[in-house]
Structures are given as structure tokens and as C-alpha cells.
Amino acid sequence: MALSRLSSRSNGIARPFSAAFNRFISTDTTPITIETSLPFTAHLCDPPSRSVESSSQELLDFFRTMALMRRMEIAADSLYKAKLIRGFCHLYDGQEAVAIGMEAAITKKDAIITAYRDHCIFLGRGGSLHEVFSELMGRQAGCSKGKGGSMHFYKKDSSFYGGHGIVGAQVPLGCGVAFAQKYNKEEAVTFALYGDGAANQGQLFEALNISALWDLPAILVCENNHYGMGTAEWRAAKSPSYYKRGDYVPGLKVDGMDAFAVKQACKFAKDHALEKGPIILEMDTYRYHGHSMSDPGSTYRTRDEISGVRQERDPIERIKKLVLSHDLATEKELKDMEKEIRKEVDDAIAKAKDCPMPEPSELFTNVYVKGFGTESFGPDRKEVKAALP
Amino acid sequence: MAALLGRSCRKLGFLSSGHGARRSVSTETGKSLNLYSAINQALHIALDSDPRSFVFGEDVGFGGVFRCTTGLAERFGKNRVFNTPLCEQGIVGFGIGLAAMGNRAIVEIQFADYIYPAFDQIVNEAAKFRYRSGNQFNCGGLTIRAPYGAVGHGGHYHSQSPEAFFCHVPGIKVVIPRSPREAKGLLLSCIRDPNPVVFFEPKWLYRQAVEEVPEHDYMIPLSEAEVIREGNDITLVGWGAQLTIMEQACLEAEKEGISCELIDLKTLLPWDKETVEASVKKTGRLLISHEAPITGGFGAEISATILERCFLKLEAPVSRICGLDTPFPLVFEPFYMPTKNKILDAIKTTVNY
Question: For residue A388, what pLDDT band results from cuts at 50, 70 and 90?
């Protein structure tokens, strides 16, 4: 019964786990205060405090979910190499703290929209592993019915607006969602995520201007992993201080590898956005993999740099140290947790592999609204083969 | 499935030379190169022959994501070959300005799917510059290169064929090569053409297509279509990577006694109407094939023009075998693509009309 509170957190993920774990997972919600690793740097606003309110339940939850995300991405790597995932696959390992910290600060009524590195954000929004792997492998059970693939995950009931391929194009969309939220008096905000490469797109500034003009509850989050594909940020941007690029819009620079800093910043941003209008968050984060599975990730950065970040700033390691230092679990228990996660991921993959591909007729569905009526001809255009639904 | 086989067939016996009328360059021997190497060679020659030419775009400095710009930055310096930030509209606008000052700006858009932010610059600025300034200014030195077309698993945003959008704009030229040898000659012509040109490169063929490419500087004229295979029963018109598929269909049709004439359009805007017209007047039937969706695709323009010019000579309606009217799909790519079997089917239907 105490355990069930944990499992209600994210559907589909926690259930098998909580049953197997027999030591009491602390579902203690007595507050623990965590200090963020670095202070926040602010632009045109007062930075929030470095002390973050948390609880043992949240700490363990962070660890579990981030470990799950990490395992999921590594598994996706192997699946891609085995050619079960085709197309493009952009992995998020290293950046998990952003996804998890953001979720901890907001509700499912707040919207998130991001670019193509969306697997973990989808999971954070309540997506299940089965949906993730099915979509990656193009199966029917996928969240986009197998028609989207890695770059196009969506979850309407959790206000997750995807999953976009064209860099920068999602930001004006996010501002539009924020407008709708304000118009409908929903007391909710939209987080529009983009990368350091996308930060140089013109449409971003157009959307920012509009949001600031109309005081929209839009929070623009730059996930700065310092490389736009293979181009280092200093080679693409005159001012790599992305949090300042809003000029007249306030900004906050956050250590994106510290889940608690992310949580604090997102909470701060949400309050700001509801009250005053747009704000920019820059998450200083890092990805271990290359830009996508076609990129080894080592031609434009040294292996030392990657392993350096892994040793010093890894988000999961940080949470692990906190868990151990607050005596919420032992090393062995955490290792067992990781084993459980590995099994869960393997099970989800096996289940997804058994799932069928979409029906051929699905090629034509959802091009237009159903019933709009378009015809599809056979190869010689003489015979009507099908009416597009 | 058929698409997979079709794709693997590209590696062997690429569009074989020897069929039909060929230009002198095609009989020369050279080094065996693939498409990206041929384009690379063309760029080296272009930059070498004109000190006021520049190559820029996203990631071109290290060679580009498809290696077309390898070695250029090292040889010509970072002042002439440089990376831009991620902003297509900015890149093309910048290129137009550079070209307006009399330079040759060779812009790379990383994938044709990303060219749309720059669409306004191309259509409203580049295409109309000479016209609206009464010939005082022009951006003829502008050449925009972009990889286009299906690649087997590219999905919605790495497989599009946007040539039809650009063919609708008077003031620019649209050129699509079919093979390494053609690509080198056509690209050099595009760069040296005094009009802004959009050059689409079939990304599928970057590594797959290997051909003997002469090492010297040569140009293949624009707006001249080429009959790459002669026949009497039906004319097939295509461009780019699709020609390989069409040639396979032609070979199969030949086994059934249908003699097909295959034309590579090369330049889509302005296109060589005379060659196609002469061919259709001979055969009396026309089939057009392209990867882009059928409605509003460039095949419609060819069909309408030929109908005007050859109405009484046509034995059957013009047939178009193209991509379907859906966004370019992910898992459904084999169904979407205009495959060899669809073309063969249409050839037979048209001939037996």
C-alpha cells in the first residue's frame, strides 16, 4: 500500500518493480533539502535559491527513472546496430537530468514540446517502455502507431506535443500552445525545448518576440549540449550565453546535469511564466552519444572530454551519491534496482519485437481528417484503387 | 521488398553507357569515382578556376555530412570554405548578397528537406533580383546544392524531393544529375551559369553509383535532355536516382518485346521540350516517373506540355508513376516509392491501351 504510491507515479514502469523490491523503498515524503551543485546565473531576474526541497521518495524515484532512461537509450543503441531500428535515432543519455527535473516541477497539464531527442521526455511524460520500443521499431503499438519513428513521439493526454524533425520549428508551435493555455485560462505553461544549434534559427526569435509582447506562459529551454551535430557552440554562435539571448526576456542558466537544479529552475520558470510572461532557461548539459546513431561522436570532441564529463558530472552518479549519503538505500540495493531495470527493458523489447507492423492501409490514413475524401489510383492512374480515409 | 532488390541492383551495372546517343565526354575514360567524389572534384575545380568563389553551409568545413566538400577548406582556406550556423534562411540570403557582388556563392543546404526556411529567399529574392532591378543587379553566381530523395530509411525529413516547388519559379534553374560523370559536368555548368541554380543531388547515389569520371574540367550543357536509351514503343522521362529504376523496368519490358526510349531530363527548369517532343512524336506514348508525390509533381507539367504539342500523335494517355499523395512515410517507404514493377505495369498498360 505504501509501495503503490510509488507505482502510481508513472504508468507502466514501476509496477513490476515495486513488487520485487522487498526492502522498504522509502516512500517517506518528509522533506530533504538538497543543495544544487552550482549557483544559478540570472539575466534580468533574481535567481532562485540553491536549496531545493525534495524527499526520499523523490530521490529514489529520480535514480530509478534516470537509470531506466539510460538503460533504454543504451538498448536503443544496440537495436539500431542490429538494424531493428531504422532511420534516424538520436539518443539522450547524459541529458536525463533535464527530462526528470522538469517533470518533477510540473504537472501533466503543462505542455512540453521538443525536437527529435525525445525518447526520455516521452518516458517522463508517462509513456511506457513498450510504446517507446514499438515506435522505434515501427510497430503498431508505438505511440504514433509506428508511423512516426524515433523523432516523432507524441502523448496527447500528457500534453506532450512531440517529437519534431525540423530544427527550431517546434518553438513557434510551443508558443502557440502557450497562447492557447493562456486564452483558456488553464493556469498551465508550455516548455519549448531546443538545442544550441537551433538557437540560431530566426523563427525562435520571432516566437520569442510574440511571446514577450503578449505575455504568454512560454518557457524556452535551450538544452545546451555544446555541440550542434558536430559544430561546437563557440563556432556557431557569437554569444553562446543562450540564456541571455532573449535580450528583453529574462533568462536563467542552470547546471543541466543536476536534476535538482533543473527542478528548481523549472519551478521558478513556471511561476514566472504564469505571472509575468516568457523566460529562457539554458540547461548546461552533455550527451555521451554522437548527434545520432550515424555519428560516432568522437570526430569533433575528444574521448577525454566525454569520459571527463562522465566521471565528474554524470547525473545518475550524482543522484546515487545523494541516495547513499542520505542512507536511503545500500549499494547493493541500487545494483539490484539496476538489474531489475535491465530486465524490464529487455522484456519490453521482446514484447515490442512480437508486435506487428502497421497495416499497409495505414499508409493512407491520417493524411487528412477522416471523411475528407481523396482517391488513390493504381500505378497507371486508370483505376481507382482506394479512397483515402 | 522489390524496392530493396531494386536498390541493391544500383550497385552493379550502373546506367550502362553505350545505349543511345551519347556526348563526347561520355566516351572518355577517367578515374572510377562515386557521386560524392565526383561532386567534390567539381567543387575543387570550381574553386580553383575562379578565385572569387566560395563554398559554405552547415558542416562543410570538415567535408560535410556526405563528404562532398572534403579537402576544400584545407586547400582553399577557411576564408573561402566555411561553416555557417544552423539557419537556412540566413545562409541563402547571405549567398544571394555575396553573389550580387559578383562572386560565385556555392551554398550547401544539408538536406533538401530543410530548404523550406530558405524558400522565401530563393523565390522572392534570388529568382526576381535581375528582373526587378532592371538588370542592374543579379545573383547569377548563386548555386544552391542539396541532397534530395529517398534513401531507404530516411523517413519524413530526410527523403523529400522538393524539385516541383522550385520548378514553379521563373528566374531560377533546377538541375538534377543522374550519375557521377553527369554530376561533375552539370555542377560545373551550374556554378558558371549566370543565373541562380538549385542543384539537387540524389543522396542515394552518393556511394552507390560508381562511374568513370574524366579528371579534367568539363561542363555538360544545361537545358539539354539526353536520350540514354533508344526505343520505339514508348518514351520514358525521368531524372536523378529514379532513372536507374526506370532503366531496370525498360530491360524487363524489352524481354516482353516492348522497346523503350529513356530520356534523362537533367535540367527541369527550363526543360528541354524539343527532345521529349521529338521522342514522343516517334513513339506515341509517354510515361513520366519521379519520387515526389504525384499531384502537382513536375510530371504534370511535362504531361500537359507534351499533350499540347503531340496530341494527335499520342496513342495512349500520358502515364505518371510517382510517389503517393502522402507525406514521405517511414515504415511504408516500399509502398510509397514508384518501383520498377509499378513502372513496368504502367508500360504494359500504356502500350496495350
Answer: low
